[in-house]
Structures are given as C-alpha cells and as structure tokens.
Amino acid sequence: MTKIFGTDGIRCLVNQEPLTAENCLKISKSVAYTLLKKKHINPRVVISKDTRLSGYLYEPILTGGFISMGFDVILIGPLPTPSVPLMIKTLNADIGVMITASHNTYEYNGLKFFNSNGLKLNNVTEKKVEEIVFDKNKYSKIVNKKYDCGKALRMEDAAARYSEHLKTIINKKIKTKKFKIVLDCANGATYNIAPNLFWELGHNVISINSTPDGKNINKNCGSVDIRKLKKNVIKNKADIGFAFDGDGDRIICIDEKGNSIDGDKILALFAKHYIYKKSKKPIISTVMSNLGFENYIKNKLKIPLIRTKVGDINVISKMKEKKSLLGGEQSGHIILSKHSNTGDGILAALKIIEIMSMKEDKASKIFDLYKELPQKKINISFKKIKKENIKKINSMANHKEYLKKGYRNLIRFSGTEPIIRILVEGASSNEVDFIAKKIEKKIRSYIV
Fold first, then answer.
1. Which one is catalytic: 28, 102, 223, 331?
2. Distance from C-alpha of 30 to C-alpha of 253, rounded to nearest angstrom
C-alpha cells in the first residue's frame, strides 16, 4: 500500500487496505495531529455516517482515535454529508468526518474529512497524513502521552438543526406551490430527514427506498439506479421525483413524463435562474459534462465555463479559486457556494421546487433548455493490470484510430473503485456506439 486518499477522500472494501481497523485508527490520529494547528484546550471533531452496516465498525474506531488525541467527539449521524460542514461551523469544531462510500454498495465504506472551514482536505494535507501513517517514526511522535483525553457525546437534535438550516435557504419572497413529490432515498443518509422536510413544507410526499437495513444502501436504487423512481413518478402521476445517493450529496431527477434529469441539466437550470445576468463568475463542471450543456452555458447564457477533472473536490477547489457561485458534476453533485461548501442533494431539490413554483411550469418544461449530444458510457471492472498496460490505456483516448472530428473520447481510471470508465460523445449516436465499443474491446484485451 502506497496511497490512502483517492479522488474523494478514502474509499475501499470494508476491512481491506487502506481501511483496516488498525489503519483507520492511525488515519484518525494522523488527521487530528495534522489539522490541529492551534493548541486548543478542548478541540472538537464532528463525526457523521450514512446507513451502511460497517458504520458501526468505523465510528467507534475514529472516535477512539480522536479522543486519544485530546479531541471531544460530537456524533451526529446518520445524516447526509453536507450536514458536516454546517455542524463544523455551528459547533465551532476543528475537524469533520463523514463515514461513507457515497454511491457504492454496502460492501464499501470510506472517510471524507473536512477542515475547520468546512472544506475537504486538499492534496497537500492528504499527503502529510499519508506520510505520517506510512512512517513508523513519524507516527510514533504524534502519540498523546497526557493523562487527559477527550470525551464523546451524541447530538440528538442534529437532524433538526440541519433541516431548519435548509428551510432558511428557501426564498421567502416566492410563494412555494405544493407538489406531489417522489423521493428515492437510496436506503441511505437521507432516509429520514428528506421525507420529513418535504412533508413539513406541505408537499405530498411518496418516499421509496427509505428503510435502510445496513446492507441495502444504493442497491438497485437512488441516483445510481433511477428505474424505480421513474416507475413511481409515472404510477403516482407525481410532479417530480428526486433520487439521492447513499450520503445525500448527489441528486438526479425524474420529470412528470418520466424523463431523467442529470447534473448537467440541473446546473443549466440554476445557471439560468440564479446566475444569468447576476454574475459573470464562471460555472465549474467536469470533463464529463455534455457538449450541449457547454454550448448552452457559453453561447446562450454567455457565462464562462471551466472544466476540471472528475471529482467534486476538483470542482470545489476551482470554484474557490475563481470565486464561482455554481459548480457540479453530471453525476449529480451540485454546489451552490453561497449556501454550502459541498454538494447537497436536498438543497438542490428545494431550489428546483422553488423554480417550479416561481415559473408555475411543469418539471419537463423548466428543464427543456438545450439538446444533448449523444454520449456512450462504459464501465470496465478489473482486478489487476500490468503497469505497461496502464500506460497504454491512459494514452488510448488520443490514438488516431479512435479520433474523429467533432467527437471526443475520455478514458480514465476511477479514483474510488477498480473500474475503467469510457466516455465517447459526438453528433451521431451510431458512430458514438461504434467508437466506444472499439475502445472497450481494446481495453479488455489489456486486462485479460
């Protein structure tokens, strides 16, 4: 093992490197040491989790690690990831941790760390933590040898605090209409708070996949699988459906006709109603975003668009650098920097409802903003690949045999799981399929 952090914190199969029980303890103590720049009498850390079974494994290990370093631990989970930066601020905490593997199934888990400003760790800080964990000499020097240690408490009203915070973001000048809404909570962290919040706001709520058992998180549901949501929206003649992922920082929508609304379309909607003519700060998206979306933002709305590598941390970092108000990913991470330092699925849903109320239009109408170009996505799982073949795969997107004018190819290794992701985009769906399958065939020959 030579690396701990991926594109979004730490993520792996439960009880495997780098998140064995022993390493988890080392990581928590190393993060505590690295992030605590000032000598606080009682430093604080906020720890939350989603609903996966292994949360019961990692929560007490992290708690013990931070307590041993003199931290007071405030446990707030299960709650969505975006609740952590909020609680860091309101509780004057020094560090926040979210125990989650986001959109992955229960066999996986992970850790997302936040600093005192509610921002995810940058690469420099992650590298410092890794150096301590991997170096026995450095690790031995961060041990707290004092008799005093921290303590832990569980905050019972954390969900209510987060819910009330979300309500304050709603524009009170807009009279919110009451809609029939289907919520797919992915049997994850939004299972309780989302249905209650939308009900409190007066909507007719139909909640599905909101009975977590520790093993059904993201299983054929939520933002990674919207088939059940689509079926329920049509069956119940709902106005709109929202699908969250396991930790609630992503959202995908279904309009009243059963059409899928991805992160690009949500960003376009927010750009039109919250950014257009109000700010010329750039919108930040990733290399995965559709070219139709890019043309709409740049040519129709005349707003600058900057693309980053995949990963919401890359989007957030660039947003901070450019002082951007809006950014996100096609996969459903939507960041409204005025209100949150990270993606927030529930917040995005509330803002969509706000626009539907303001425009007095159906969901299919408000999202009809641009024509998408055909995209083909293929995921290839692997166990092990030779180093020379990794180099070949990384360079394939630029090979002449796969390039065609007006088309683009993207081939990348996932930073969260052993998968090679292929994206081909262009004017003709048939040609897109042909190029994608050609690339897939070649890559599979390298991993046999």
1. 102
2. 39
